[in-house]
Amino acid sequence: MDLQLKGKRALVTGASSGLGLACARSLVAEGAIVTLVARSTARLERARAELGAGTHVVAADLASLADIERMVQEAEALMGGIDILVANAGGPPPGSFESTDVAAYPAALQLSLLSTVAMCKATVPAMRARGWGRVIAITSIAVREPIAQLILSNTARAGLTGFLKTLATEVAGDGVTVNSVQPGLHATDRLREVFGDTTRLAAGLPVGKLGDPEDFGRIVSFLCSQTAGFITGAAIPVDGGASRGLQ
Ligand code: NAD
């Protein structure tokens, strides 16, 4: 299927590893021009060396609103505009209600909610003016079933999902779609770092294996496609059947 993404200009954050890098890889394979964002220039350069021509990099910390503003300006200057935003970053630290001080919430909300709000503020108006745009946020299956010991992530991502649904409705008439993709357990380096041996995790999933980050990237590319123009305001689980609810 031709996703009709040739020449589209995509900004992908949290793109030096894992699911973000897989999204960037897939968009490049579809012919998009991609700017990758993460904090470490060295890791970004490694990714650029792999992805090659048509790829730009900008180092920025999504914990900083000033950095986000600069990063969007630089990406626009490098690509001549932004048609697609894939908003992603690492997750906030673990903890329960009891172990997490209220002072820990603002940083988590900045990283996992406000950074995406700021990126949408900086990119969506131009998408609306051009009559075409795609916003995809990578959240978590925790939006459907909050995960124990991840109270910061559970809180921020549920709020972000409400923001995205509201935005989707406001901009739908201007050719801009807004969706989130909710990863379950995917075989990223980060997951291996946190859990070590992932055999038992995989066995606990209905499909019996972890998700392939490259498949996840291709699902995000599909949501960016022309064909997916009728999908908006959706929060799509990609979790191997792990969430058991009806919605
Ligand atoms: P990862 O750690 O491999 O990748 C995160 C990326 O974000 C990296 O490129 C990192 O450099 C970048 N990043 C982190 N903090 C940043 C910051 N402050 N500013 C700019 N860039 C920053 O993680 P992943 O496994 O690819 O997960 C991506 C997202 O999906 C995370 O939010 C994670 O919590 C969520 N998620 C992942 C899984 C999974 O199974 N992998 C499951 C549920 C949710």
Descriptive notes:
The chain is α/β, with parallel strands linked by helices and 247 residues long. The chain has a single domain (9-234), classed as NAD(P)-binding Rossmann-like Domain (Rossmann fold), CATH 3.40.50. It contains 8 helices and 7 strands; from the N terminus they run E-H-E-H-E-H-E-H-E-H-E-H-H-H-E. Strands 3-2-1-4-5-6-7 form a 7-stranded parallel beta sheet, sandwiched between helices. The longest helix has 26 residues, at 105-130. The protein is globular, with a radius of gyration of 17 Å. The protein starts with 8 loop residues before the first strand and ends in a 9-residue tail after the last strand. The model has no long low-confidence stretch (mean pLDDT 97). The structure holds nicotinamide-adenine-dinucleotide (NAD). Nicotinamide-adenine-dinucleotide binds next to helix 1 and helix 6.
